[in-house]
């Protein structure tokens, strides 16, 4: 039986640290200098952040160095596509030092790359909108597209830096007509990457619903819940800034069916959009942890804690059906979103204050917000952090564990 002192190594933000902390698990976080997870009361150790897209080898070496110093292999959690791909592609080496759950390597690649996902959807008859792979080189014309307009255009792989060269905000672009796509074509070609064009499903972002699940190695569904977006910023194709737990029978039923078709193991989020006729169309499947897991934990289904228990051989926490109506918000971003959505401040503020989960803000963990805010407000810690960026990791460890310098110093 593993010890409860086994640390969780978190490549993610407070919405992944917090559900683990609430389950009594101490965390090692890989986060940017000044990021809130470094200052959480649940954080025992902080590692220098390495960008998964730009510094893959450094990220792996940082993890290996840290994992090799621990008495027991840490349990590894990951929240972004870039980190998912790095861990999947280096899974054999990382398994020497960490415990983690992850989908089959080929399935990870199929789900992250939107062109491969379309091929997978065709083979497995997944209920996806019509879409086409765009290769916007100078030799290929925008006229080859045989979809009904309007369409949305998004990158095959969600690489934030590259996408910002095409669109300043949002995760996708709406294109109304073939002529508009022809005008956009040179900008797409200049990015040097491929894209997906997908037929638009009418309706606001509030029609996006999701299924969240953890499936163990035996194929048993250990925990699940469903949810819906309340607001995004920007209003169209933006980042989630307000969410709510739901209990939609058709979302749960379809999610379970798709888990079986995919042969999925590990954690995943299935995003659907409800069409005007009520059908659920599958937008994407993310086989990784997400910000939703903070909200799920407060609603009664703590998926990270279940994964941790299985990885360490501990008894699983009790699992019940998720309590519908539990809400999460990212207050500073949702305030801007509320203005875009026409919600007056007098109505938004009490709503936000009453949300059960909030990004970073928590009365029982105030220093995560306070110290991160102070770091952003004063320049000297940023200059000091830049000078120390060459170091692979700087743990903040309990005094009894050693004398390495503190990440918060």
Can you characterise this structure?
- This protein has 409 residues and is an alpha/beta fold.
- The chain has 15 helices and 15 strands.
- It has a seven-stranded mixed β-sheet, with helices on both faces. It has a four-stranded parallel β-sheet with strand order 3-2-1-4, with helices on both faces.
- Helix 1 runs parallel beside helix 10 and helix 12 packs antiparallel against helix 13.
- The C terminus is likely disordered.
Q: What's the shape? A: globular
- Helix-residue proportion: 25-40%
Low-confidence stretches: 389-409
Mean pLDDT: 89
What's the Cα radius of gyration?
Answer: 21 Å
Q: What is the rounded distance between the termini?
A: 35 Å
Number of strands: 15
Number of helices: 15
Structural class: alpha/beta
Tell me the fraction of residues in β-strands, as a range: 15-25%
Largest sheet, order of strands side by side? 13-12-9-10-11-14-15
Sequence-ordered SSE layout with sheet pairings:
Elements: E1 8-11, H1 14-22, E2 27-31, E3 43-48, H2 56-69, E4 75-78, H3 81-89, H4 91-94, H5 105-112, H6 114-124, E5 131-134, E6 151-155, H7 160-163, E7 173-175, H8 178-191, E8 195-199, E9 208-215, E10 221-233, E11 239-246, H9 249-262, E12 266-274, E13 280-286, H10 292-298, H11 303-312, E14 327-329, H12 331-340, H13 345-353, E15 357-358, H14 367-377, H15 380-387
Parallel strand pairs: 1-2, 1-4, 2-3, 14-15
Antiparallel strand pairs: 5-8, 6-7, 6-8, 9-10, 9-12, 10-11, 11-14, 12-13
């Amino acid at each position: 039986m593993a010890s409860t002192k086994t640390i969780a190594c978190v490549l993610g933000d407070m919405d992944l640290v917090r559900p683990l902390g609430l389950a009594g698990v101490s965390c090692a976080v890989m986060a940017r200098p000044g990021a809130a997870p470094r200052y959480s009361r649940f954080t025992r150790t902080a590692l220098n952040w390495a960008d998964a897209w730009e510094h893959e080898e450094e990220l792996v070496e940082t993890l290996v160095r840290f994992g090799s110093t621990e008495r027991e292999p840490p349990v590894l959690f990951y929240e972004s596509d870039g980190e998912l791909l790095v861990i999947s592609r280096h899974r054999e080496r990382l398994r020497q030092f960490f415990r983690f759950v992850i989908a089959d390597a080929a399935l990870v690649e199929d789900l992250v790359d939107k062109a491969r996902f379309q091929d997978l959807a065709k083979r497995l008859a997944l209920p996806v909108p019509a879409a086409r792979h765009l290769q916007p080189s100078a030799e290929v014309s925008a006229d080859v597209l045989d979809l009904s307009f309007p369409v949305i255009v998004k990158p095959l792989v969600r690489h934030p830096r590259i996408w910002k060269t095409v669109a300043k905000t949002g995760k996708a672009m709406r294109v109304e007509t073939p002529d508009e796509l022809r005008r956009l074509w040179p900008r797409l070609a200049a990015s040097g990457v491929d894209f997906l064009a997908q037929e638009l499903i009418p309706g606001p972002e509030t029609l996006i619903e999701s299924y969240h699940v953890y499936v163990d190695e035996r194929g048993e569904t250990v925990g699940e819940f469903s949810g819906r977006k309340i607001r995004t910023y920007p209003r169209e194709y933006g980042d989630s800034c307000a969410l709510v737990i739901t209990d939609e029978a058709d979302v749960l039923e379809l999610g379970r069916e798709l888990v079986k078709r995919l042969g999925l193991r590990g954690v995943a989020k299935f995003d659907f959009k409800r069409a005007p006729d009520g059908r659920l169309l599958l937008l994407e499947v993310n086989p990784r942890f997400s910000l939703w897991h903070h909200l799920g934990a407060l609603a009664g289904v703590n998926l990270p804690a279940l994964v941790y228990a299985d990885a360490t051989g501990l008894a699983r926490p009790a699992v019940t059906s998720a309590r519908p109506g539990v809400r999460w918000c990212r207050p500073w971003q949702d305030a801007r979103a509320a203005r875009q959505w026409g919600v007056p401040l007098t109505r938004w503020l009490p709503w936000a204050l009453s949300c059960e989960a909030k990004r970073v803000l928590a009365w029982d963990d105030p220093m995560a917000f306070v110290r991160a805010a102070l770091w952003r407000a004063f320049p000297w810690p940023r200059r000091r952090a830049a000078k120390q960026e060459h170091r692979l990791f700087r743990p903040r460890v309990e005094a009894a564990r050693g004398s390495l310098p503190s990440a918060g110093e």
